[in-house]
Amino acid sequence: MPAARFRCTGAGLAAGAALLAGCSATPEGPSARPAAAAAPTPSCQPAPLERRAASVLIVGLPHVTSASDVLGQSVVDLGVGGLFISEPNVRSEAQLTALVSGLRARADRPLLVSTDEESGRVAMTREIVGPGPSPRRLARQQTSAQVRAFAADIGSQLADIGITLDLAPVLDLDDGPSGGIIGDRSFSADPLRAAEYGLAFSSGLLDAGVTPTVKHFPGQGRSTRDTHATTDVVDVTVEELESTDLVPFQRAIDAGAPVIMLNHLSYSALGVDLPASMNPRAYALLREMGFSGVAITDSVGMGAIYPRWDFPESAVQAVGAGSDAVLTTDGNQAKRMTDALVEAVRSGRLPEDRLNEASARVTALAGGDPMAMSCVPVSMPELTPSPR
């Protein structure tokens, strides 16, 4: 499998800040399908604007442990596209299963339920699935087939609870200290090895019926700063990105990855003024590489984002830039974020077609009808696992 499926002219490579002007996509493989048309079908009636706006949000439930909790009920009634399960939500398998099933029963639509289970130190459901080795250790001690089986076991436990989306695996490249920001969360510093093991982990989750999310595009391993606290500028050329950080993501896109998360770092090759999650050039690059699935932000409550944009404004900025789903760990912000998206559409700041496209993709990912939501037909990529 080739390492990259996009080409840049000499002019494009020379102008890092004008990257996309000189690039053209030549997507191949199962994910090489036309991007969704953003304009609604003329004879179709979309859902109310408020519901479309809420549908692009995936929100956490701080300290919620029961489906009777007001916060959980309110975000489901608002119409959010998905929920995010973190450690404070988890007491036992029975309790978490009841929480998820209760909120699903309250929803009038398919609902994404996500968590962050990478194995190793980032494991939100460790209380249930148990401790596991870091991705770095997995890649050093096991074959990719064994890692696929390992991830399938994690996925089956998540699926039993009702979790359908895992914000893993990490495709970032890092061979630095294990405790680094990425560190041992990375399978390898070698692009091809990181791709091999990342796709094996993804395939295992898929074997169990759980959708994987590869992250953190366009590669977070070069930075030593924690975006939970602050942002950073990665001074890198387009050529360096193409030959290293982007390789695992291109392999994942070629294999049909359905969801890709963007990080909160800025890149000199994409312009230093905006983090990738808020940068139209980053989303354009992702689409140029052939990606037609759901692009999701890292949590917008992190320190790299919040001092510059509050929760409502970050939602508008991200969707306007090209994100389909906006992640926040704090569901208390969901109503304000929804209202901001609605107002941005009504005022003309956010094109309604862009919101419709995002809403359609998230709805399709959840298993709903994108036409009923946004009157936008979408064709989601399907991950094609390598043979066992």
Give an overview in words:
The chain is α/β, with parallel strands linked by helices and 388 residues long. The chain has one domain (46-374): Glycoside hydrolase, family 3, N-terminal domain (TIM Barrel, Alpha-Beta Barrel), CATH 3.20.20.300. The protein is built from 15 helices and 15 strands. Strands 9-8-5-4-3-15 form a six-stranded parallel beta sheet. A three-stranded parallel beta sheet has the order 10-12-14. Helix 8 (191-207) links the parallel strand 8 and strand 9 (211-212).
The overall pLDDT average reads: 89
Number of domains: 1
User: What CATH architecture label applies?
Assistant: Alpha-Beta Barrel
Provide the spatial order of strands within the biggest beta sheet. 9-8-5-4-3-15
Can you tell me the CATH class? Alpha Beta
Strand portion:
5-15%
Distance between the termini: 17 Å
Q: Which fold name corresponds to the CATH topology?
A: TIM Barrel
Give the overall form: globular
Key structural traits:
388 residues, alpha/beta, TIM Barrel, 15 helices, 15 strands
Brief synopsis:
The protein is α/β, with parallel strands linked by helices. It has 15 helices and 15 strands. Helix 12 (311-321) packs across helix 13 (334-347).
